[in-house]
Write a structure and sequence with these properties.
single chain; alpha+beta; N-terminal domain of TfIIb; Nucleoside Triphosphate Pyrophosphohydrolase; four-stranded mixed β-sheet; 3 helices; 13 strands; 12% helix; elongated
Length: 242
């Protein structure tokens, strides 16, 4: 499942990489490349105890509060207000429903993202999203589905995005990506098969590992750790596409 804004947003987007080689491959066409409908349905069970005291104030984004993309309670449709609970949550301001019998709170927890350093025939696959500028390439990433392990999730993402089969999956590490409120779980994936890109991806590159240049945040840190563990020298780039 992709988020509705998948073409504008990609998990771990800070992990752009622009390798020094020039070989690139354009996406082969797929018969099933028609746009897919995307939807996300969530249910919120009622809480038995009332919510902590509410601060009745209009919702306005600020650096100190965690905000939702909506202004009304998804459970009872009441206008959301700001709430602070200094005794139990350190005073962090959150959006919450003012109806004590409802008790909905928008926690805004980080989204778990899986990322793959895909190795195919000894080279690393980097892909360009169809919505990205020319020259921007990154690791394969995606959001975890409900009910799957991170290992299953990254194998699924690799297959969905590239058509490749994950033969061996090993954990590289877990990385913060606070700027996008994501938690990245990165894997090294040895894959086999023929690359057939999803409609979301426009082209790809197969890069010799010593030529990789990681971005300083997100998946770039994971790539740097992977290279360091193999004794490969590298230099960071300060911004995507450098």
């Amino acid at each position: 499942m992709r988020e509705p804004a998948a073409r504008e947003r990609r998990p771990g987007v800070g992990g752009w990489h622009r390798p020094r080689d020039s070989g690139r491959f354009v996406r082969p066409s797929r018969k099933s490349s028609a746009p897919r409908k995307l939807a996300r349905i969530e249910t919120f069970p009622r809480r038995a105890r009332p919510a902590p005291p509410l601060q009745a104030a209009p919702v306005a984004p600020s650096p100190s509060m965690t905000t939702a993309d909506y202004r009304f309670c998804p459970r009872c449709a009441s206008p959301l207000t700001e709430r602070a609970d200094p005794d139990h949550e350190g005073g962090r301001i959150r959006q919450a429903c003012p109806d004590g019998t409802c008790g909905y709170v928008h926690w805004n927890n980080p989204l778990p993202v899986v990322a793959a350093i895909v190795e195919l025939d000894g080279k690393i696959l980097l892909a360009r999203n169809a919505a990205w500028p020319e020259g921007m390439f990154a690791l394969i990433t995606g959001f975890l589905e409900n009910g799957e392990t991170p290992e299953d999730g990254i194998a699924r993402e690799v297959f969905e995005e590239t058509g490749l089969k994950a033969e061996h999956v090993s954990l590289v590490g877990v990385y913060e990506f606070i700027r996008k409120n994501e938690l990245i779980i990165a894997y090294h994936v040895r894959a086999s098969g023929t690359v057939v890109l999803s409609p979301e991806l426009l082209e790809y590159k197969l890069v010799d590992p010593p030529l990789l240049r990681p971005w300083r945040a997100g998946t770039g840190v994971a790539l740097a750790d992977w290279m360091r563990a193999r004794g490969l020298e590298f230099e960071f780039v300060d911004r995507p596409g450098q």
